[in-house]
Each structure stands twice: as C-alpha cells, then as structure tokens.
Amino acid sequence: PGWFIRQRIRNACSRSCWASATGLALRHIGVQRPLLITQYNDEVNAAIIEYFRDAGLEAAGAAGLGATNAAQVNALLPSDFEALARKALDQHATADGIFLSARGNLLSVARMLEETLNVPVIEQIQASVWWSLSRLNIGPVPGKGRLFSAPRAA
User: Fold this and answer.
1) pLDDT of residue 37
2) Which terminus of the chain has fewer Cβ atoms in its 10 Å neighbourhood, N or C?
3) Mean pLDDT of 136-144
C-alpha cells in the first residue's frame, strides 16, 4: 500500500501541486530538514517523506493526527495542529522548519508558531499561493511571515 500511495502522489504532482510548491517554498527560505505535521496516518506520512526526499529535502520527521476519512479530517481543529507541532518539534531537534499539511487554512497557526518557536513554518495553502505569486513575479509581501517576506531569487 505504501508504494501505491507514493506512486499516486508522484503521478498527481505537476510543478504546480501543493507538494511541489511546498518543496520550492521550503528551499526558498532555507529549510533543509523540515518537520512534517499532517492530518494523516503513518503510512501516508511515509509516502510524503519519500516524495520530499525525491525532491531533495530530507525530513527531520513526521507526525500526524491519524485521520483516515473525511469525517475525521473535518473534525480536526487548528489547535490540534498547533499542539502536535509543538510536541513533535521537541522530539525532532534537527528540524530547521515546519510544514503544516492540511485541507484547511492554517495560516494563523503557521504565523503564530513561526513567531513563538523561531523557526520557519509553512502551511500547504500558503505554499501554493506563494508559488502562484512567484510565477507572476509578485512579491515579496512584508508582514505575512518569512515565506512571503523573503526576496525572490534573481
């Protein structure tokens, strides 16, 4: 099953998918060993770790909230991601940034964690928006966290 999930991620991901945008965004702000915080279980997290490894990023680790269906995902709160990120960062001291993967908008959580933990934090929707703006040569956007504030590469 892990192989199947990895293949589905690889096959579904073009240069504009969330995973590709996230990898580019993490590199843009200098993160090399992200800690992955997800809504998923260990099997899906392992596939995401492998995708990032194939993209040249070695995850420091992953922690998931274990959701396996839409009802469980919809029951998750932003505070669940915040609490898991804090706990997991203590357990993965080599992490130099955090990626929050979720269907919902976790921008406020990402910004709060970035300020209080003093590490770059990127959430999935933020990475996709950043990628889209960068393709349009829009940015930086000060005051919106490290990702949006960082100058574009020449």
Assistant:
1) 97
2) C
3) 87
